Amino acid sequence: VQLVESGGATVESGGSWRLSCKASGFAFDDAAMTWVRQTPGKGLEWVSSIGNDGLDTLYLDSVKGRFSISRDDARNTLYLQMNSLVPADSGVYYCAKGGSNTWRAINQRGQGTQVTVSS
Question: What torsion, rounded to 10 degrees, do the Cα atoms 104, 76, 3, 53 define?
């Protein structure tokens, strides 16, 4: 299993940005996928998950209505569109194999990509 995140950047508060995660080494189209983030003082925090069908999505309350998770199975790529960013969204973002209830136990995620939201 290989998961490679990209797109980390410094973004102004209120801005938008998109992260990508390229997957390989497993049947991506059969897998639920998840974004998690490591923020200062909060540890590893679940952010969003998407089912293997691309229809079922779940979001952390604080990002609901601002973030959107999606997938392109033809490209084996997972995305996280982030809008109306706030400084509290700053952190290292990881994509992980598995859904909201399984990603931690599966314990397979990428190396992470840094997002910094400037105030």
Answer: -10
Give the C-alpha distances (Å, rounded to integers) separating 93 from 49, 53, 74: 13, 23, 23
Q: How far is CA 72 from CA 41, 56, 77, in A?
A: 33, 14, 5
- Three-state secondary structure call for residue 39: strand
pLDDT score for 22: 98
Residue 40 has pLDDT above 90, yes or no: no
How far apart CA 84 and CA 81 sit, in angstroms, is: 10
pLDDT band at 9 (very low <50, low <70, confident <90, very high): very high
